[in-house]
Amino acid sequence: MLLPVLLWYAVRDLRWGVAFGVLGTYYLSLLSFPISGILFTDAIVLASLWIAQDKRLGRHGLVVLLCYLLWLGYLAARAGSPEGWDKWQKIAGRGVVPLAGVLALRGTGRIDRLLSPLLILSGAMTLYLAARWVVGASASPDRLQLVRLGPIHVGRAAGLALLLLVWKGGDLLRSRGLVALAAAIAGLVLLLSGSRGPLLGLVVCLPFLVPWRRLRRGHVWSALAVVAAGFVIWQFVLGAQTRARLTITPDALLSSQVRIILWQDALEVWRSARVWGQGLGSFASRYSWAGLNIYPHSLVFEVLSELGIVGAGLLLAYFVATLVPRFRGGSLSIPFLALVVFFVLQALVSGDLTANIELFVLAPLLVVDAPTLEPGKHATQP
Question: What secondary structure does DSSP assign to 165-205, as a single string?
């Protein structure tokens, strides 16, 4: 029943369509949705975006979308195996819809209001994951994860919810106590995932989202309560293995050493095909004997090894295209920059192209046309 409801809101309200697209990876994974179903869902939501915006994305929006489609086209051309084609479908299915919606929202004065649907959906996902942990439904005894939702996705959903709570939670919940409670639950889920990438991104980005000028005594006490809750969770809730992963221990260092070995292997692969790469999905085939889906755990090394200099150049062109208005008088949004950095840090040390789709979607939000994006304020409609 969840999917029809989300689709209904996606068609009725562009902001909900975009938010669903950004977090669709999590929800559709929980529903065991096949990739063909995701592509079908994309077609429905894209149609609603097209109708809602009267076919106008703006010149810059079209440039960004064309750069992304050119990137996808190159990926399709380099998908020479069933594994590569499956990977391409996941990348396309998870990225085109929210990207098109983000571009359609830009310049409408409603881009800041996208945050409420994002907060609601990521918060609902976090509460669901916390409930699954309470009833002992985790797929792993030492890390919070589900059968079709790995710990990195669990950590990202919780980290995103926590960042949005700090930025816009007061506007939505209207209660410091509720915001503090929701933040404590999101922090619990993040720590239980045992994923260091989301934790690192949170520590780096959180200071940029705190409304320092508007802090009051009540906000400080709420923040201290969340910190105290985090200490209690660390000391008395987390298992020894999870704490070991999140600190400098032999187990944590071993995980880092494995990543370094994979990065070195990816560089060796790239040196054998510097221009075009070995092909999309080729890195995992090197470890097919192990029966595992192995990837370099770094967007940079993955793109170089599988797609070569050409693929890296197309990817760079896409991100440069998103920043063009900044050099034409556009306003750089620090809060949105913090969200992008949150996903950039994770893309550098964890996940693959299919798991880091939020980075591609949120990048166009770096430069926004809305005049006000401060907490508690809303851009005026044109």
Answer: HHHHHHHHH--HHHHHHHHHHHHHHHHHHT-HHHHHHHHHH
Give CA–CA dist 126/148, Å, rounded. Answer: 15
| List of residues 6+ apart from 233 with CB closer than 8 A | 184, 187, 188, 191
pTM of the model: 0.81
Kindly state the average pLDDT of the residues 170-175. Answer: 76
**Mean pLDDT, all residues of the chain:** 75
43 CB-side CA count, 13 A: 5
pLDDT in tens, 70-102: 998 999 999 988 888 888 887 877 777 667 767
Query: Please, are residues 22 and 118 in contact by the beta-carbon 8 Å criterion?
Result: yes
What is Dmax (Cα atoms) for the chain? 60
- Is residue 343 a contact partner of residue 337, using CB atoms and an 8 Å limit? no
18, 19, 25, 27: CA torsion to nearest 10: -130
Question: Closest by alpha carbon to 19, among 30, 7, 1?
Answer: 7
Q: Cα-flanking dihedrals φ and ψ of residue 195, to 5°?
A: -95, 125
Comparing CA positions, the residue from 111, 171, 103, 121 lying closest to residue 9 is 121
- Phi and psi at 355, nearest 5°, equal -90, -15
The distance of Cα 146 from the centroid of its chain, to the nearest Å, equals 18
| Joined tokens for residue 247 | 């600190």
Closest C-alpha to 58, from 16, 10, 11, 111: 111
Alpha helices in the chain (DSSP H): 2-12, 14-30, 35-52, 59-77, 82-105, 115-134, 151-173, 176-193, 196-209, 217-232, 240-245, 250-272, 282-285, 299-322, 334-349, 357-362
Q: Is 294 left (phi over 0), alpha (psi -120 to 50) or beta?
A: beta
Two structure tokens written together for 241: 């293995």
